[in-house]
Amino acid sequence: MHNTNIRVLYDLEMDNISKRFNPNTPNDPSLLSESIHLLNLYTFHTTTPSPRVRTYLEESFFSSSLTGTIPLLTNKGIRPSNKVRISPRSMSFLVDTPLLAS
Prior knowledge:
This protein is mainly alpha-helical. The protein contains three helices and two strands, in the order αααββ. The protein has one domain (2-94). It has helices at 2-20, 29-41, 52-63, and strands at 71-74, 77-80. It is elongated. The relative contact order is 0.17. The model has no long low-confidence stretch (mean pLDDT 88).
């Protein structure tokens, strides 16, 4: 239950970023910075005394999504992680593909 709440908070924060996304400025530094900060907050680190706690938290976080994805900030706005690609921006045939900011 606790990790479901954490996941809801993550999704709400990404939704807030999504509402401020402007397609005319896809690489807005403030949104990018906020998105990176959010991802850093929800990064799972090794725990002590047992590393199993980290594994449990991580699995709960990702399994609380029906699709098994997380929303990410791309050049096309917030998109589910299974639709996002990493690529150099110079590839002209990827104009409509959501790409992670570089």
